[in-house]
Amino acid sequence: MPASEYQREFRQLFVSAWALATACLPDMRTARWGRVVNIGSGVAREPATELPHVLPNVVRPAVAGMHRILAARLAGEGVTVNNILTGSILTERNLSYWNWLAGETGRTFDEVTEQFHARIPLRRQGRPEEMAALVAFLCSQRAGRITGQSIPVDGGISRHL
Length: 161
Description:
The protein is mainly α.
């Protein structure tokens, strides 16, 4: 992978997370209340050796670390900062990937998804509304004591780590 691609991905994964989080901080600090929730990846906890390049394995933990530092610095100001470590979520992107993989490997779509789901203790992908429910909770008053956390939402895969 050329260096320019690494730089582009670093900007997409790390710099964008930093810019989004810090853009809101002045108003949150003034209000003495706010919530920052980053949608990250389970790669932040455990490297994904099957990825074609190493950058996500390096940058995702850095993003989670950055959010922990922000959480520590902002805790006394009423602002919480958390990171959600997603597993696979049932999205159009994943459906497209599985269709592509089925075609590339000569297997059926059902065979591809069955093999993928077999490694997830819940035996299924996450649904977008499950992620949305966690984000809504973390943004609520009731989540006021949760900060600096990287929360896995991966169907139980991380319990093996």
